[in-house]
């Protein structure tokens, strides 16, 4: 395995002993520390085995991807993960569905349930969608992003990426920077990182920071001081309640990460971004494409392995 962990076979042995009690994955609150640890190690173990040895544990199983909001990484990695484990995938998006003919989500979901899928992955612009529809489904449900609330599988793949590059999350300092208030990635990451003992701080303009008990910084240089990881987030334009008082240029000047202001952080800081990136706004290409700092494509890679681990644990 090509990472700082080397061969941690002893830890992988532990996961054989673990019995998952997971029915759905709707929120990070559904997971114990032990569940998270299991999923991280399972994802990393999938990253270390050759494709030809993936176990066909989803053989004869059909997963429906119900994506009512746009997606590249999340949807494709759920598809790839399902195929890797020998399962079948059906994709459903808003375009071309009867939701556009006026059908309410409850009826769509009852219709899908009547076809007896083995698992449903759902993304929607409304908070709590996965929770709300779980009562109509007989199979497990995975939340692939609900409004500005949560995106648990992203936080889990982020945690596995951190673990693979930096080791244990406990005691690490992580700064989440940008539009934290409207980001479901931030919502799940704050919960998961704190659950695993990391220290989380938030950086951004006041109007894009949530009100909570975390350390909040409106000054970028102060916020990134001493952190091990900077997670950058795009402005979630589709979720803003009102026009921002800060312009995109001002946001870029004060909070956009580039090769100059990264010097305020430790020289060995890592940079993460869930994608999609808006290059030249929250992150510059000189950082996004710089392998010394950027874990961004490693996150994408881990996304497939983490979704395999999750499908494995829920199926
Ligand atoms: C994120 C999302 O959809 O919440 N993307 C993703 O799943 N990788 C982040 C975003 O849209 O900004």
What is the topological layout?
Elements: H1 9-17, H2 33-47, E1 62-67, H3 73-84, E2 88-93, H4 105-114, E3 119-124, H5 129-134, E4 141-146, H6 152-166, E5 173-177, H7 184-195, E6 199-203, E7 215-217, H8 220-224, E8 229-232, H9 248-255, E9 270-272, H10 285-288, H11 296-314
Parallel strand pairs: 1-2, 1-3, 3-4, 5-6, 5-8, 6-7, 8-9
Helix pairs in contact: 1-2, 2-6, 2-11, 3-11, 6-7, 6-11
Bound molecules: N-carbamoyl-L-aspartate (NCD).
N-carbamoyl-L-aspartate binds at residues 73-74, 145, 151, 154, 184-185, 234, 236, 274-276.
Structural commentary:
There is one protein chain. This protein is globular. The longest helix is centred in the last third of the chain and has 19 residues, at 296-314. It folds into 2 domains: 4-150 and 302-314, Aspartate/ornithine carbamoyltransferase (Rossmann fold, 3-Layer(aba) Sandwich); 152-300, Aspartate/ornithine carbamoyltransferase (Rossmann fold). Helices cover 37% and strands 14% of the residues. It has 315 residues and is an alpha/beta fold. Helix 6 (152-166) packs across helix 7 (184-195) and helix 6 crosses helix 11. It is built from 11 helices and 9 strands. The strands form 2 sheets. The chain has a 5-stranded parallel β-sheet. The protein has a 4-stranded parallel β-sheet with strand order 2-1-3-4. Helix 5 links the parallel strand 3 (119-124) and strand 4. The structure holds N-carbamoyl-L-aspartate. N-carbamoyl-L-aspartate binds at residues 73-74, 145, 151, 154, 184-185, 234, 236, 274-276.
């Amino acid at each position: 395995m090509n990472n700082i962990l080397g061969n941690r076979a002893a830890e992988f042995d532990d996961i054989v002993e673990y019995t998952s009690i997971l029915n759905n994955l709707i929120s990070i609150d559904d997971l114990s520390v032990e569940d998270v640890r299991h999923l991280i190690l399972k994802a990393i173990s999938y990253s270390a085995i050759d494709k030809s040895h993936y176990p066909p544990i989803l053989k004869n199983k059909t997963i429906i991807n119900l994506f009512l909001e746009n997606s590249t990484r999340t949807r494709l990695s759920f598809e790839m993960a399902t195929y890797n484990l020998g399962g079948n995938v059906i994709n459903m998006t808003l375009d071309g569905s009867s939701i556009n003919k006026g059908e309410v989500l409850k009826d769509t979901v009852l219709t899908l349930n009547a076809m007896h899928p083995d698992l449903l992955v759902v993304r929607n612009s409304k908070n709590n969608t996965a929770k709300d529809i779980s009562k109509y489904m007989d199979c497990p449900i995975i939340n692939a992003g609900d409004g500005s609330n949560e995106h648990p599988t992203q936080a889990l793949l982020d945690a596995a990426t951190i673990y693979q590059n930096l080791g244990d999350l406990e005691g690490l300092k992580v700064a989440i920077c940008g539009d934290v208030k409207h980001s479901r990635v931030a919502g799940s990451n704050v919960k998961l990182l704190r659950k695993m003992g990391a220290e989380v701080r938030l950086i951004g303009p006041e109007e894009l920071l949530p009100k909570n008990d975390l350390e909040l910084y409106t000054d970028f240089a102060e916020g990134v001081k001493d952190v091990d990881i900077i997670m950058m987030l795009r402005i979630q334009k589709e979720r803003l309640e009102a026009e921002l008082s800060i312009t995109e240029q001002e946001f870029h000047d004060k909070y956009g990460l580039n090769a100059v202001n990264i010097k305020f952080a430790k020289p060995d800081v890592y940079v993460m971004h869930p994608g999609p990136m808006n290059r030249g706004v929250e992150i510059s290409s000189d950082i996004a494409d710089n392998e010394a700092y950027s874990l961004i494509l490693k996150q994408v890679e881990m996304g497939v392995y983490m979704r395999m681990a999750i499908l494995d644990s829920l199926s």
